[in-house]
TrEMBL record:
GO terms for molecular function: metal ion binding. It comes from Heterotrigona itama. PROSITE patterns: COX5B_2. GO terms for biological process: mitochondrial electron transport, cytochrome c to oxygen. This is Cytochrome c oxidase subunit 5B, mitochondrial. Transmembrane segments: none annotated. Pfam families: COX5B. The lineage of its organism: Eukaryota, Metazoa, Ecdysozoa, Arthropoda, Hexapoda. Keywords: Metal-binding, Zinc. InterPro entries: Cyt_c_oxidase_su5b, Cyt_c_oxidase_su5b_sf. The keyword Metal-binding applies. Gene3D superfamilies: Cytochrome c oxidase, subunit Vb. The keyword Metal-binding applies. It comes from the Eukaryota.
Length: 70
């Protein structure tokens, strides 16, 4: 998955200090959180480098740097 487009397995007990890590070769990235298993709604949000972000459902996310292609 060179573009890191596959869904990541989220940690249910994520916190600001221990967030779900989202790989990115850029300083920001848009991600979607499916807050409940049986929902069709996706909560979209921007993540920015160095700034953990909390979804409305309580899950925390943070970008982690990966090398760009090429």
């Amino acid at each position: 998955d060179p573009y890191h487009m596959k869904a990541i397995e989220i940690v249910r007990d994520s916190t600001r200090e221990s967030p779900n890590l989202v790989p990115s070769a850029f300083k920001s990235r848009i991600v979607g959180c499916i807050c409940e298993e049986d929902t069709a709604h996706v909560n979209w949000m921007w993540l920015h480098d160095g700034q953990p972000r909390r979804c409305e459902c309580g899950h925390w996310f943070k970008l982690t740097e990966v090398a760009p292609l090429g």
